[in-house]
Amino acid sequence: MRNLIAGLLQEAASAKLIDLFLWSGMAGLVDARFNQRAFTGVVILDLSMGPDALFRQFSQTRRNDIRRGIKCVVSVDLAKSRDDVSAYYAVYVDWARRRFLPITGEEQVQGLFAERRNRRLLLARYKGKVIAGVVLRFVPGGVVEHAANSSPQSALHLKPNNVLHWRAIEWACRRPNQIQP
Q1: Do the Cβ atoms of 164 and 133 come closer than 8 Å?
Q2: d(Cα 140, Cα 29) in Å, to the nearest integer?
Q3: What pLDDT shows up at residue 1?
Q4: What is the pLDDT of residue 180?
């Protein structure tokens, strides 16, 4: 942590404000020269730890929910076709309506996933039916970002989001330097 802060200060040079977001358990490692405040922001996982180490760091409840979803036979795979994206689109529309959010047109959504250079759609299925999806954006050889998630209220008891996020972490861990289309 000392090296990180020294590097930040050196790179920031004359900056008057530096925002540094940390897991709450790391806050005690921050230099006393910095003001600290609680903030809900971006969560970053160090994927170089590998999926097993990351899984062990999850709360017991999170691990149980992932296992429960897997036991319910929720499967996860990458969207491979326009039909897959259409099935996800129906889930997305339901989710957006429940939240009173604007709905992106299906052709625009199809276009997002036709371009595979920096975006993937992972789908959770139950008995072959798409019940949730997570959108991942990435820089090949770099950062992976959770960009969106949609699921119907009726499927939440199957824990599809827990399984989806876990499978997304596993997927990203397998491809740290080679996330490619």
Answers
A1: yes
A2: 32
A3: 72
A4: 45
Strand-pair category, 144-150 with 129-138? antiparallel
50 token code pair: 């590998």
pLDDT category at 135 given cuts 50, 70, 90 is: very high
Other residues' Cβ atoms within 10 Å of the Cβ of residue 69:
25
What is the distance between the alpha carbons of residues 146 and 152, in angstroms, rounded to a whole number? 18
Q: What are the chain's domains? A: 1-43 (no CATH), 47-174 (3.40.630.30)
Three-state SS string over the chain comes to CHHHHHHHHHHHCCCCCCCCCCCHHHHHHCCCCCCCCCCCCCCCCCHHHCHHHHHHHCCHHHHHHHHHHHHCCEEEEECCCHHHHHHHHHHHHHHHHHCCCCCCCHHHHHHHHHCCCCEEEEEEEECCEEEEEEEEEECCCCCEEEEEEECCHHHHHHCHHHHHHHHHHHHHHHCCCCCCC
Q: Do 97 and 125 form a contact (C-beta atoms < 8 A)?
A: no
CB 20 within 8 A of CB 30: yes
| Whole-number Å distance between alpha carbons of 86 and 168 | 20
| Average pLDDT of the segment spanning 47-56 | 90
The tokens of 103 are what?
């709905």
Contact (CB, 8 A) for 123 and 132: yes
